[in-house]
């Protein structure tokens, strides 16, 4: 049976390897240290590490080659690369090859610990969720995720503001999974994607025979998410008549299905999101002020992708890994291609970036995606 360790450390500097091992073990982590990539790969047969911390420049097989081998042997295993040469090209090479983070020597003890906590076994801001990963090194995003973890411990309603495609549902799911309700359901609904005449039934349920086509009882999302979380995306598109009924649900903590004469208690936390300016909608009479205050107990603002460009290599590496796991060929972007991605305008944000990466992977004739191919996909 394989031995479970927290960290597999790979560095050819014996003094640094020993110092890092002691530093990490003093914080309670178990460490297996190796001097080369070859030794680490051999040791991996009997190990189940939660995270790999590897030097970029190693004797023999280098850190990038090691990273690519690890992605084949242990898909999804987080790898953090370290280097004494903390230049952007090194970070780009590491992250485009699948590293979840890149740190420069000399290593800051607190920065290293925070990085490991974020990535080890999916913990912290980069943890995996059913809706994807939140990958970031952007200071504003890291601050936002710290706020999310604090808010998650409460029962407060949360309103998430952010442009389309920036990942509002992923952030909402992250909040749910960081909360005491994590074992309960997380159910999302885009209020603008459901016809107005069906939205009430979708949210609150209906009784058999309540309207034409209601051939059986339907419990609705609020009851289905009892003990968990409902995420209402594009809440600004909710019709005015339903805003009144949603307000009543938030106030009384009970729902009345369409066609039913009695109300049914529900224990559901409500998260909502919009790309629209709700304050302006309230002033224009398009959104109820009392509902706005009920939803906007805590506000979280998700930045657009062009405000966190340093995250683009991380997001690209993640998408390349996801596409590879789904059967598409393994691809990497050339350094100038990655620079083009980082510098490009992304009005569709993370969603548009992921679509562009997938298009490049599908259309690329070879393993390395060139700058010219990227420009064709933009």
What portion of residues belong to β-strands?
15-25%
User: Gyration radius, to the nearest Å?
Assistant: 24 Å
Low-confidence stretches: 122-132
Classification by helices and strands:
alpha/beta
**Euclidean distance between termini CA atoms:** 48 Å
On the 0 to 100 scale, the average pLDDT is: 86
Number of helix segments?
16
Q: What summary fits the major beta sheet?
A: 5 strands, parallel
Number of extended strands:
16
In spatial order, strands of the major sheet run 2-1-3-4-5
Helix fraction, binned, reads 40-55%
Which outline best applies? elongated
Quick synopsis:
It is built from 16 helices and 16 strands. With 378 residues, the chain is α/β, with parallel strands linked by helices.
């Amino acid at each position: 049976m394989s031995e479970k360790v927290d960290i597999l450390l790979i560095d050819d500097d014996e003094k640094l390897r020993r110092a890092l091992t002691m530093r990490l073990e003093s914080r309670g982590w178990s460490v297996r240290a190796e001097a080369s990539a070859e030794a680490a790969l051999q040791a991996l047969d009997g190990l189940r590490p939660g995270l790999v911390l590897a030097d970029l420049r190693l004797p023999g097989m280098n850190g990038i080659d090691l990273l690519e081998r690890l992605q084949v042997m242990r898909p999804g295993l987080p790898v953090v690369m370290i280097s004494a040469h903390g230049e952007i090209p090194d970070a780009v090479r590491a992250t485009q090859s699948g590293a979840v983070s890149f740190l420069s020597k000399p290593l800051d003890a607190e920065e290293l610990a925070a990085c490991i906590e974020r990535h080890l076994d999916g913990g912290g801001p980069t943890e995996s969720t059913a809706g994807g990963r939140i990958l970031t090194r952007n200071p504003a995003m890291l601050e936002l995720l710290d706020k999310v973890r604090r808010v998650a411990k409460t029962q407060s309603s949360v309103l998430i503001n952010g442009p389309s495609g920036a990942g509002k549902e992923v952030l909402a799911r992250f909040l749910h999974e960081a909360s005491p309700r994590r074992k309960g359901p997380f159910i999302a609904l885009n209020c603008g994607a459901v016809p107005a005449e069906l939205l009430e039934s979708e949210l609150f349920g209906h009784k058999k025979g309540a309207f034409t086509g209601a051939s059986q009882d339907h419990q609705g999302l609020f009851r289905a998410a009892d003990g968990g979380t409902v995420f209402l995306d594009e809440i600004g598109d909710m019709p005015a008549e339903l805003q009144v009924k949603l307000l009543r649900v938030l106030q009384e903590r009970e729902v009345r299905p369409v066609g039913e004469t009695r109300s049914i208690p529900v224990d559901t936390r409500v998260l909502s999101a919009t790309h629209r300016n709700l304050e302006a909608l309230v002033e224009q009479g398009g959104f109820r002020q009392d509902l706005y205050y009920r939803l906007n107990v805590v506000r979280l603002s998700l930045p657009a992708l062009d405000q966190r460009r340093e995250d683009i290599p991380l997001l690209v590496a993640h998408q390349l890994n996801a596409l590879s796991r789904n059967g598409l060929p393994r691809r990497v972007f050339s350094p100038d291609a990655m620079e083009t991605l980082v510098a490009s305008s992304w009005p569709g944000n993370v969603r548009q970036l992921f679509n562009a990466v997938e298009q490049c992977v599908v259309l690329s004739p070879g393993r390395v995606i060139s700058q010219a191919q990227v420009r064709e996909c933009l």
